[in-house]
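Sequence in, structure out. Go.
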Amino acid sequence: MAVDVDTTVDSTERGKDRLERYAELAVRVGANVEEGQTVFINAQIEHAPLARALARAAYVAGAKYVDVTYRDQHIRKAMIELGPDEALTYTPPWQKERGEAHEGAASIWTTGDPEPELLSDLDGERVGRAQMKELAEIGRRQMVDRVVNWSGVAFPNEGWASEVFGEPDVERLWEAVAFCTRLDEPDPVGAWREHMARLESRAAKLNELQFDAIHYRGPDTNFTIGLLPNARWMSALFHTASGRPYVPNMPTEEIFTTPDPTRAEGTITSSMPLALLGEIIKGLKLTVRDGRIVDVDAEQGAEVVRSQIASDENAARFGEIALVDGSSRVGKTGITFFDTLYDENATCHIAYGFGIPEVFVDGMYDGMNISTVHTDFMVGRAELEVDGLTKDGSSVPILRDETWQLPE
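Output:
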């Protein structure tokens, strides 16, 4: 990881200094902004303090120009509730032009939804369809071409804290975020280097074993998914096509690959609530045949998922499987964050929709699922057993009781 910042952290520091250090970590380790780059920041309006700190950190890192866009979920709600049907998928020309401008730039987006259930009273089918498809296509192409170094970070706020803790305890949420992102370490950059090296070692071991498929067995789960021979396991230490390293998710605790979208069978059940498109999905259960999701059941929010997987031809196929064990800092907090950036790094997860171009060797994307959707949902728990299946039918334990079984 090419990082040249020397930072020390006193975990008792608060306020402005903490925010500045957090922004510096996101800019220099997460997006790893290059001198002379344009930097795009996409933040919710409630995240303005972080956006300002990110802009300052980006300029300190040598950014040529920082462009900040604020998004407001209440405007989105008005569009879904009151707008014409064509507004749900419309991409204005200026949005497409701005999307194209990301090529060669760095990009940072923020999470930490101040109102995770804002859209829960709307028609789930419309919520699931509401996406700028042409803009999503541009972003998808740029991911395949690996021309943007990007990262996502969360901003603690009262609304998010209230969803997580039942009270607006922002300081408690900040402490959890600092722990998960290693901001509480005396040397956060060094801690990140060590952490990523450990994840890279795990990925290398799985690549060495060359499994043909992965099998999940647990409560309401019996699911097998095939692997692609040209897709490697990796950590979230990404590289642009020009070779610049960056970490797209902060925090990250996973190793992952893109599976064979044509080979998946069985039933897989979510183990945690999923914050999706302004609604909380609970008790999600998917039935899969011949690689496709053929049935969606949930205690709450099933219609949003059904609409999303019906939004394009391949949204009902899988684009990612990720393994996370009990050593995860996010998992150790015992907190359900109602934010996928965090919850997906608490435990094992799977994503339906678009695959991950970075995992393919030498840019050979044969077999990767192509979709405008990529939705991660959590499946890990203590009772879940994960095995690697070899081509001769042998089964090798990978996870038991959330403990990594392979040598490191």
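Check: The CA atoms of residues 99 and 286 lie 33 Å apart. The first strand starts at residue 38 and ends at 44.
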